[in-house]
Every structure is written in C-alpha cells, then in structure tokens.
Amino acid sequence: MARELLGKVLVRRLGDTRLEGIIVETEAYRGYDDAASHAYRGPTRRNQVMFGEPGHAYVYFTYGMHYCLNVTTEPAGQPGAVLIRAVQPIKGIVEMKKRRRKEHVKDLSNGPAKLTQAFAVTKALNGHDLTTGRELYIAELFHPEAARIISASRIGIKAGSEKPWRFSIRGNAFVSKR
DNA sequence: GAGAAGATCTCCT
DNA sequence: GGAGATCTTCTCA
C-alpha cells in the first residue's frame, strides 16, 4: 500500500477551498512484528484507529506540536498504516503558504508534519473515513507520470530502522530527505 | 500520579 | 550538525 499510494493525490476540502498534493513519499508501519510501529505493543487509546477498518485516517499528535497523517491499510483487528511523509503541492498553493507562513513551494509539504499543517489536518480528522468522506480523501491523478519508486530506511525512529519501508518517487524534489 | 520518550520542525552556528 | 520547543501518550509503580 505504501507503494500504491505514491503518485496519488491527497485532497483536502475546506469549504470552497480545495487543496491538493501528489503523494511522493510514504512509510509503512505494521504491527506486532514492527518495533517502530505505534501498534507494536497492542491497542491503546492513541492507536485504536490502526486496529480499525482500512481506508481511514490515523492522525496522531507528537513532539508537543505536530500532527502526522496515516492511512490504515489492514482489515479490522489487524494493525497497519502508511504514513504520508511528503506531497507535491498542485492546488491551493496560496492557501498552503498562508498556513505554513512560507514563501517557497518546496517548503510547504516536504515532511509529515509540514503537510498536515499545509492541509489543515488535525486530530479532528483522526478516524475519518477516506473512502466516503468529503473533507479529506485520496484520488487518482488524471495524467499520472511514469515514476520509478525507490525504498530506503524509515526516518526518525530507533527500533526498526533496518527495515527499508520508506518509499518515494525517485528524483522528486519534494521528498523530505534523500 | 510521576517520569520519560516521541513516525518533527525551525532556527542557529 | 545540533539544540530547543512543547505536550500528549504510554508505562510502571
């Protein structure tokens, strides 16, 4: 799923405003076999969405100030999610610049907490159904480019860093870290 | 109830 | 390359 989501479009609707970005970097997190995953030690209040239905948003708060967005991927009862680490803005860039207080497009969403700020994703969207919801969902790109996907180790974790479960579109300028 | 760590970002050197 | 910001969540007593 982490590979499948690359090249698709993250869509956020805020009233009349529409924000869109191509997903260019993801990371896979599993369950009891993945020490880096929030679900590693079983269900808790925070990670319960990871154990729920697939196709839902798992949004968590971290470092006292940041939100990160995941997509749940496994059947109910089985934990698993894909972290959206970076997107390439394609629509609503003026709005994103205001939210991020940044001038350059490259600074808007090249990191997991940057894109949630640009797209106004907060805990209010935790558990949101991405398959039926209108406020936040994932769409196909009308004219997808052929892209090569590369994998590397995940970022910002201690345990589980040996697993090459970070995926990105090769050469894309909006990937958080090369 | 206390203590520690965190799937990060920004600013500074 | 490194430290500070800042607070929720989890673990353990």
Describe the 3D structure.
By secondary structure, this protein is mostly beta strands. Helices cover 11% and strands 31% of the residues. The chain is built from three helices and eight strands. Strands 1, 2, 3, 4, 5, 6, 7 and 8 form an eight-stranded antiparallel β-sheet that branches. The radius of gyration is 15 Å and the shape is globular. The protein starts with a helix and ends in a 9-residue tail after the last strand. The model has no long low-confidence stretch (mean pLDDT 95). The structure holds a DNA duplex (13 and 13 nucleotides).
Short description:
This protein is mainly beta and 178 residues long. The chain has three helices and eight strands.
SSE diagram, text form:
Blueprint: H1 2-5, E1 9-14, E2 17-29, E3 57-62, E4 66-72, E5 81-91, H2 93-100, H3 112-118, E6 136-139, E7 149-152, E8 166-169
Antiparallel strand pairs: 1-2, 1-6, 2-5, 2-8, 3-4, 4-5, 7-8
The chain binds a DNA duplex (13 and 13 nucleotides) through strand 3, strand 4 and helix 3.
